Amino acid sequence: MSNASPPRDAQALIEQYYERGWTDGLPVVPPSEDSVGAMLAAAGLRGADVIGEIPDRHVRVTADKVAINAVLAGCLPAYMPVVVAAIKGICHPDYCYHGAATSTGGSAVATIVNGPIAPRLGINAKDNVLGQGVRANATIGRAIRLVMMNAINTRPGKLDRSTMGHPGKYTLCFAENEAESPWEPLHVERGFRQDESTVTVFAAEAVIQVYNQLSNRAEELLLTFADAMSNLGSMNIVGQAQQIVVFAGEHCETLRASGWSKQQVKAYLYEHARRSVADVKRAGRLAGPVQPGDESAWRHTTKSPQDIVVVAAGGRAGAFSAVLMGWGSAAHTRTITTPVALP
Fold first, then answer.
1. Are 241 and 328 in contact, with CB atoms under 8 Å apart?
2. Tens-digit pLDDT profile for residues 99-117
3. Fewer C-beta within 10 Å: the chain N or C terminus?
């Protein structure tokens, strides 16, 4: 892919990119030497610098490829360090790129930004947090997907074998609402300083919205989340991968008023996000006939409470929050948190 193009040829180039399969289905911004150079400069990188490797694909992802795709996605140069951190995350061995990106399960890269860089770049953490309308959220997430397609050749119908896919595969990037959270931010929980900036990547199935308008007690509220987390059709009920629970404003305030810590929330969700082994067998999700004791034996959606990732984000108004289901199994992929390196 060339990184130079005269502005007068933009429309023709966009059509060429469609023909060559270099887009995600939406029009892209034709890159130039100047725009790619600005991306690299913003991250303090040279084009040949290696950002990460995918050994299963025999691929090295270099900085120039990331920069080109960030331009294609519509990123501002200031977003480049966040995109680079996310690419480092998906190249981490524990993320298990090959499985997460090529499986028929069709996971998206959910990208959570923490620290001072999020408000500095205007990454949305509030109203419509998982939706459209904010350039930083939309283009950072989109750049990750375009790198996956154009630099790692993970294209639908080829290496990307998703049966269904979901809209999060276009882009799924947001910031944690640290200022209004009842708890310490995700990156602090993971050992980083409050004043550091990080990116956390997670192989996510489709988002499940959770609605509860009447509950004013933590126990009642969290039961609705546990039920959403443990539906019989989820990958989690068998694979027990991690899950992300995104609490928005009204639900955060209920938990704050109840005095529940993040660890208490995780423990309660873990205990109640479960189905009996008998239920799972009757649904054909576990092999074999129902045995004595299966009615009282439990299958939790994660291996432990710590595999439930809790963050605060979304609007203040409205009794809605969300669960991001995990792809695969606990043995296949983990959330990865990477520091954002600024030049």
1. yes
2. 999 999 999 999 999 999 9
3. C
Write the pLDDT tens digit of every residue in 186-195.
999 999 999 9
Residue range 84-109: mean pLDDT, rounded: 96
Joined together, the tokens standing for residue 126 give 């509030």
CB 307 within 8 A of CB 332: no
SS3 labels along the chain = CCCCCCHHHHHHHHHHHHHHCCCCCCCCCCCCHHHHHHHHHHHCCCCCCEEEEEHHHCEEEEHHHHHHHHHHHCCCHHHHHHHHHHHHHHHCHHHCHHHHHHCCCCCEEEEEEECCHHHHHCCCCCCCCCCCCCHHHHHHHHHHHHHHHHCCCCCECCCECCCCCCHHHCCCEEECCHHHCCCCCHHHHCCCCCCCCEEEEEEEEEEEEEECCCCCCHHHHHHHHHHHHCCCCCCHHHHCCCEEEEECHHHHHHHHHHCCCHHHHHHHHHHHCEEEHHHHHHCCCCCCCCCCCHHHCEEECCCCHHHEEEEECCCCCCCEEEEEEECCCCCCCCCEEEECCCC
- Distance separating alpha carbons of residues 276 and 244, to the nearest angstrom: 22
| Contact partners, residue 183, CB within 8 Å, separation at least 6 | 189, 261, 262, 310, 312
The C-alpha atoms of residue 147 and residue 334 are separated, in whole angstroms, by: 20
User: Are the C-beta atoms of residues 130 and 204 closer than 8 Å to each other?
Assistant: no
